[in-house]
Amino acid sequence: MAEAYIIDAVRTPVGKRRGSLASMHSADLGAHVLHALVERTGIDPGAVDDVIMGCCDTIGSQAGDVARTAWLVAGLPDHVPGVTIDRQCGSSQQAVHFAAQGVMSGTQDLVVAGGLQNMSAIPISAAMLVADQYGFTTPFAESPGWVKRYGDVEVSQFNSAEMIAEKWDISREEMEEFALASHNRAKAAIAEGRFDNEIAPVTLADGTVFTTDECPRDTSLEKMAALEPLAPNGRITAGVASQICDGASALLIASQAAVDEHGLKPRARIHHLSVKGDDPIWMLTGPIRATRHALEKTGLTVDDIDLFECNEAFASVVLAWAKELEIPLEKVNVNGGGIALGHPIGATGTRIMATLLNELERTGGRYALQTMCEGGGQANVTIIERL
């Protein structure tokens, strides 16, 4: 089968809720990284076969196939198509998978994969709230077929995070220590300039140049211990959950033919890609099954993987995944994760991959594995190999 190469990866700095990117139109947010990717790689944008971008809650500024709109807003050729996909939190990681599959199948040669999300402007699950306002029935749990299969059970990511903490015996204190480490790792990475190569600074409406992720907090175990749990007598608090934020990210995926024709220099190859489903009531346990499958499929072991990224939707998700698969935490989210850097849901997959790619190069590692929990009890896994 043909190879799929990562040529480059770029992202915006992540803006905190109601922060620097809050007033930026979602299409302009996406356009920024698309323009930066074309500029950095020097490709002829007219040679791109497709633009695939993840985005959730596609209403308002994110409606109407925002991937296509973002490409046009970036001033790029109008004969290049675009498609917006929604696999919940894994949307842009799935965009990479679709792009790589197009290249590996031999039907495409140059594909842009990315994602965007302005959560300040369009809150999570906003589409369901709007539908409810107009009297439409939207929650899937109201489906008679769903109730027949799963019962009249509340489906909630917060409930799932709590259930995971209980099942894997993860204490609130353990999660808070993990969250604090995420903030400390992110702040250290920023101070050392580890994100500089992947960030395309954004010039804001007032002329300010936004260059640095603004979600990491100056916090402490004492401050987190004072937070109220999200459920009575629960272990999950806002301090151990990912942050609502805004951002965009994009990768260029190429075939060997495109590499040769356009004189491109690949930075990594897609070694493995897969996606698995799990119990939708538990929802956030998908990375365990998906990672186990990926390792079995490739014949790799945990020891063969130099770096891991498991999205920090909640601390319990990552800690249960690491405990179940015996993955050492010193190899996981080494520059911080969603708790510190934020989780702009449609863009997180390719944001993480941009960071993984640069960290793999910085440390001289060979393989990196990325996974994330997703709505509906799903999880993508991508393994990349540095070249």
UniProtKB/TrEMBL annotation:
Domain of life of the source: Bacteria
PROSITE patterns from the UniProt entry: THIOLASE_2
Hydrolase among keywords: no
One Gene Ontology molecular-function label: acetyl-CoA C-acetyltransferase activity
E.C. numbers: 2.3.1.9
Protein family according to the UniProt entry: Belongs to the thiolase-like superfamily. Thiolase family.
Protein name stated in the entry: Acetyl-CoA C-acetyltransferase
Originating organism: Nocardioides marmorisolisilvae
